[in-house]
Input
Amino acid sequence: MDRIFSKIFGVPKPYGTYQIKPAEYLLSGRNVILQAPTGSGKTMAALFPYLLARYEKLDFPRKMLYCVPMRVLARSFHSDLTRRQGVGKLDARLQTGEQQDDRLFEAEVTFATIDQVLSSFLNIPYSLSLRQGNVNAGGVVSSYLVFDEFHLLDPGSTLPTTLEMLRWLRGVTPFLLMTATFSGEMLGRLAALLDAEVVTVSPKELDSIPSQKAKERYIYRADELLSAEAVLSRHQRRSVAICNTVERAQALFAALQEELQKRGDEGTRLVLLHSRFLQADRRAKEDEVRGLFGKDAPQAGSAILVATQVIEVGLDITCEVMHTEVAPASAIVQRAGRCARYAGEKGVVYVYQVPQNQKGEPNYAPYTGKQAVLCGRTWEALARSNGKKLDFPAEQHLINEVHTQADARVLEDLSQTSYAYRQKMVDTIRRQEIALARELIRSDDSVAVIVHPNPSEIEHPYDLESFSLFFGTLHGQFEEWRAAGLPDGRVSWLLKYPQQRDAGEVEDRPASWEWIKVGTHQDLRRSPIYAVNPLLVRYDSEIGFRFVCGGNFQSPIKKLPTPPDREHRWKYKVEIYREHVQKMLNVYERTLYHHMAYAASRLETLLKLPVGSLDRAVRLAIALHDVGKMDRRWQKWAHEWQRRIGAPVYEDCMLAHTDYDPRDPRHQAIEGAMPGSRPPHAAEGAVAVLKVIYHLLGGPKQNDSGWKLLKALFTAIVRHHSPKTDSYEGFSLHRAAATTLAGLLASLGVAEEAVSALEMSRSPQSITDLLVQPALRDELLLYFIIVRALRLADQRAMAEEE
Output
């Protein structure tokens, strides 16, 4: 394993056994919590099990989801992976709010922010329409999951949601949690909660880590506010100043600019970096910061970086002097990791108090609630560490002193409220409401904001570059506007949020959105993305996005590949039922089968299902998913359409799709003149084939594992166009339906007598009892895997046809 590790990563040998042990545990079916200092190669330790399994053809997921709390981390890890020797050929993509290269989690390795992963599991993926809400959950279930910088997750929302999800996935989905700054109490309790192994760095290994050798870093508590004077009075060659809010960072940057001009200092390079820059500007700034503060930066010259939490993790930089506003001890340690970062360096960290709020108390925002309490405890603890050396043992001492009680309380609260918390997750999966998801994912953290004069012109809310704002910032700014008497005659609206129009099962049309004016503070909880009136903001590449009136900035369109859910642009070619099914099966067998195989095998073992049960269920779902289209009304409409466009088909030909090109004026005209519309078919088809499925699954008894599989398969067919479908209209199948289906099943090796159970007609009736219940973990995970394979096979088959 040492030899393969060295070959994969191009290093002489692993830094220690902590880089190898996670692979040993994970490949033997155990989950892992890894604690190691910054700069110790945790990312390599996380990648190694996945890459080792690929090269040695071991039983392990074919996909890896690398989850991080911040976008800058995702970009940094993605960039690092693609540069590494031996792993550069991997299909590795980014999936964050600002760069959505893998909306459907299809790459081999996806670096994603935690909100993208949790929203996907909860069936409200932030990057897809609600109609696509049940596609990505199966991608989470069937991946190897890595959660890096786990300590940065919000203990009031993101952390407990992630832990509860992992408890759901135990025994099915392998996962690795990594941190540099969890207390010993948290490590032990987490291991017990998740039934995981803890891997740590021994003192001997600590000395062997290159970044830890012969370096000195000291920490001081500065009983004053962070100011331009404080930064310049202690500046040597490279200084970093970190503010807790973008507004204070912008103000400090402006003050430093003014002071440097007064001094006639033209040689010091001053850079501002925060989350509210356009992608191209931010990348240019990050590249400049690496050039000025990186390991190989020129020794001559003077530079000052003013930043926010965006540099806590991900940016591989160093400095002699760091200034930071007080934050939770874990965040202070992360920030300090950017001072005297490399072997042989010396550095000093100064921690400052924050300004007071209207109540005369420290304004710890964006840290609120329990996090604000931790800020206060950190300030007190720093008095006892004042002037002391800050090495890894000292960091762990500070973390334990500040976080032990809070960590214990978080886990205690989770154990006491586990049922209630899981119910919130169940309700979110069932109801698909953004407001519910926000309580579970970054409850008081960030929202995306775009700038546009007329949002109704936007095809998709995420087509434009957005800025990430803390919810409290947007809330406060909305309050300021209202107090100033806005909106008024000059500004007709302040903010708008998108609400998707219900398109039912109309699969050959894009999702459409209605943009609704924000009228109350409650409206600020209804969406993860908002549009702001351009008259209320300004933007420039040096300072970034600001709430300053009088601007004319408009968010640019992202320069990204066409999103997968719109890949074929809703253009269709006529296709008979059997052809469509065969194309889907080809897609499934080429890739999708292999991606779900590991999770399917674990679920089959867990539920004592026969080997291959899930594979058979997916194949049946593909074969039977569109039987509802063989309804007489659906076929009558489709045949009439083909006749009117001049491409008729014979009467008993069962169509799965018609010709359709939304850009063809003739098709547009015929569409408007067509009598009626096609009836829904998904739930109708599921009801028609229910007894067929029951027969083919061996007639399972209620509540046994076979019955769970039946419900998962039935629900996947019902919801292969919308995850909220829970009823059906009456149907009457075409006379050719039975013959068509018999021929299809015969080609799949299924006896023709199974078709005798096909329901040819049925009046509306409740199907609620046959649908998967989100509270029942086993059938939910089965459903997630089947519906993902079904929907992706359908989409890819259509894209290939185009």
In short: The chain has four domains: 2-204, 214-390, 445-560, 575-801. The chain has 25 helices and 25 strands.
